[in-house]
Give the backbone structure.
Amino acid sequence: MSRGLGDVYKRQPQYYVLVRGNASKRGNLDANRRLAESRAQAAAEYLIEKGIHPNRMHVVGSDPTGETSVSFVLGEAPF
């Protein structure tokens, strides 16, 4: 986990985290969607291990964007 994300989360308990997995546009669309969801879930499990409560997270896999990454968005309301 980014040290910054964990620090912000601990100092701002009203924040929620959106965990979004991304996948490449190459290949099968359904397979890429599953891959994006899997990436997001793996990142969420890591955040849970680091102390972020699962009720304060929303985990999604996005439609393939061409990026192969996971992004995090902090907000003050549930996503």
Remarks:
- The longest strand covers residues 16-21.
- Helices lie at 3-11, 29-49.
- Residues 12 and 76 are 9 Å apart (CA to CA).
- The radius of gyration is 13 Å.
